[in-house]
């Protein structure tokens, strides 16, 4: 059991007041707050060990390099990657998917007329990068549908794989519906056709134990800032065999072996994909966040968050005209909802005035909105520091807002 | 006919009685419910001002040298804001509208809705209403 009240003291921002009310931060699927240890790592990094990494012979450069490479190993262990050079630091999930999309489509592993499969519940960042590549090669996007509860149709997925399918790219958990997808099963199915799989783990890593070897994922990507780390740092895990086959994404320093105007040769993994000065302060702060999570125990965090989800679901069910968007029996981290005909923007604005931070709108997943024929939802998303008391504040806030908008009827 | 300034003051006065944010927003919502909305035929793309999360439709007519607005939104809060703008600005000359300082927005605590990053498109809404006045002014001066 986690001592949440004690844990909350680790997060300086949680004592903030918003509009004269104590902050109730329930927008964790967008970004999480940062514990003091992460903030300290950033300050310490710039105060005591700031120098550009990998190229300096001097002391500071060496300790900065060591910290960055130690962070890589922390990430490797956190997701149980086999080799540390299978961990590529990126700016976040979005850049990691763009990297794979760009490099994969420029490789000889996919040709005109070939297909990539995504799901209908993807974030725009797992749709648009593939669409952008359609100007490079004539590739087709196929989309796995989901049902009214927000559950992927695996049978339909099975039937859409052909010899032209070259990659499957699906989300671990939907940022809009909360659905946890059966990624191990998806990977097994794809592998039975020799098709590699990319998993968008932006909403997965914060709420699940991820073991990329157990999953046998070919690529797994996530963002640091959604798991208590800083913004601007993220991770691309790729199996060595795939990363070796992919051409570099960006050119610049660090990623080369030799450069001449006639011929440039590229550095080995992971540096091949880390052009330019990497965010070595961000990487160490991310490692600090992952250590923080490990110390609390991911199992404890998952149990606490699942309790919050179940509690919130039960409480919110009692609100008149409550409609949940996403009712899979396997959900994590968030609840998307609408109350009667109240516009999400209206609900979100009033909740904000009550100090409650939720997300409103289409959550960068417009195809999901189209599927349900709605413009948007209100989304409350949870983190390890949220409490049942905060859920009570949310429920009271929703009821209060609903009374304001129902008045005219 | 009350001037723009008088109508603004009337609204500022009404809001001065609301003690907290929720009261103020209730009043905004009520303003929207009292508003006359917009003729269905103007609820088209041509009259649409799209914010990231809300939609507003605005139309204006010129009658006897004066501008008459109609406006409506699909969200109740923005609907209240547009209804107040319509109430304050309608029935005035293009010149009066273009010279108006819409201080009520700030005075009733809605200034945050006027920043370009705000997703409700209020800034675009005010701009569009001024644009109508500008076009009518040009027509009158021909």
Description:
The complex is a heterodimer of chains A (409) and B (142). In chain A, helix 8 (212-215) links the parallel strand 8 (197-200) and strand 9 (219-223). Chain A has two domains: 4-30 and 297-406, Aspartate Aminotransferase, domain 1 (Alpha-Beta Complex), CATH 3.90.1150; 38-294, Type I PLP-dependent aspartate aminotransferase-like (Major domain) (Aspartate Aminotransferase, domain 2), CATH 3.40.640. The mean pLDDT of chain A is 96. Chain A is globular. Chain A is α/β, with parallel strands linked by helices. In chain A, 38% of the residues lie in helices and 16% in strands. In chain A, the strands form five sheets. Chain A has a seven-stranded mixed beta sheet with strand order 4-10-9-8-7-5-6, with helices on both faces. In chain A, strands 13-14-17-16 form a four-stranded antiparallel beta sheet, with helices on one face. Chain B has a single domain (4-141), classed as Alpha-Beta Complex (Sufe protein. Chain: A). In chain B, a hairpin with a 2-residue loop joins strand 2 and strand 3. The longest helix of chain B has 20 residues, at 122-141. Chain B is globular and about 50 Å long. The interface between A and B is medium-sized, with 20 and 18 residues.
Summarize the structure.
The complex is a heterodimer of chains A (409) and B (142). With 409 residues, chain A is α/β, with parallel strands linked by helices. Helices cover 38% and strands 16% of the residues of chain A.
């Amino acid at each position: 059991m986690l001592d949440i009240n004690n844990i909350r003291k680790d997060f300086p921002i949680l004592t903030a007041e918003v509009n004269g009310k104590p902050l109730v931060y329930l927008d964790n699927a967008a970004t999480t707050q940062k514990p003091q240890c992460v903030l300290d790592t950033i300050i310490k990094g710039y105060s005591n060990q700031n120098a550009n990494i990998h190229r300096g012979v001097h002391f500071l450069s060496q300790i900065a390099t060591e910290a960055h490479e130690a962070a890589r190993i922390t990430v490797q262990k956190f997701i149980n990657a086999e080799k540390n050079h299978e961990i590529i630091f990126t700016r976040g999930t979005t850049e990691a998917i763009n990297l794979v999309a760009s490099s994969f489509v420029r490789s000889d592993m996919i040709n005109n007329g070939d297909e990539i499969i995504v799901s209908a519940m993807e974030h725009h960042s797992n749709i648009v990068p593939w669409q952008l590549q359609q100007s490079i090669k004539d590739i087709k996007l196929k989309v796995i549908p989901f049902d009214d509860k927000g559950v992927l149709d695996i049978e339909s997925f099975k039937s859409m794989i052909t010899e032209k399918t070259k990659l499957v790219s699906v989300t671990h958990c939907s940022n809009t519906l909360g659905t946890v997808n059966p990624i191990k099963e998806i990977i097994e199915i794809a592998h039975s056709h020799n098709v590699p799989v990319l998993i968008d783990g932006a909403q997965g890593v914060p709420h699940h134990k991820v073991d990329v070897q157990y999953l046998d994922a070919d690529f797994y990507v996530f963002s640091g800032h959604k798991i208590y780390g800083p913004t601007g740092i993220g991770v691309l895990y790729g199996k060595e065999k795939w990363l070796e086959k992919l051409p570099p994404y960006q050119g610049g320093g660090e990623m080369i072996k030799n450069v001449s105007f006639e011929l440039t040769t590229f550095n080995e993994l992971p540096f091949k994909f880390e052009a330019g000065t990497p965010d070595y302060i961000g990487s160490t702060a991310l490692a600090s966040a992952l250590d923080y999570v490990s110390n609390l125990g991911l199992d404890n965090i998952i149990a606490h968050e699942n309790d919050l989800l179940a509690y919130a679901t039960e409480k919110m069910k009692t609100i008149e005209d409550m409609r949940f968007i996403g009712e899979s029996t396997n959900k994590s981290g968030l609840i998307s909802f609408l109350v009667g005909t109240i516009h999400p923007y209206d609900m979100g604005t009033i909740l904000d005035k009550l100090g409650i931070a939720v997300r409103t709108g289409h959550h960068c997943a417009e195809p999901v909105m189209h599927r349900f024929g709605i413009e948007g939802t209100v989304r409350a998303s949870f983190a390890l520091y949220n409490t049942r008391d905060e859920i009570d504040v949310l429920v009271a806030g929703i009821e209060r807002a609903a009374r304001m908008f129902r008045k005219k009827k | 006919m009350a001037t723009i300034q008088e109508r603004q003051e009337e609204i500022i006065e009404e809001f001065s009685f609301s003690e907290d944010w929720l009261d103020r927003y209730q009043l905004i919502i009520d303003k929207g419910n009292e508003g006359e909305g917009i003729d269905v035929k103007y609820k088209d793309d041509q009259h649409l001002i799209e914010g990231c999360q809300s939609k507003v439709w605005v139309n204006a007519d010129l009658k006897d040298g004066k501008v008459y607005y109609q406006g409506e939104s699909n969200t109740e809060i923005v609907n209240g804001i547009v209804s107040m703008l319509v109430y304050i600005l309608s029935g005035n000359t293009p010149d009066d509208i273009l010279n108006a300082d819409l201080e009520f927005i700030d005075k009733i605590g809605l200034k945050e809705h006027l920043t370009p990053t705000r997703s409700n498109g209020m800034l675009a809404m005010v701009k569009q209403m001024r644009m109508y006045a500008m076009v009518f002014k040009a027509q009158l001066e021909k």
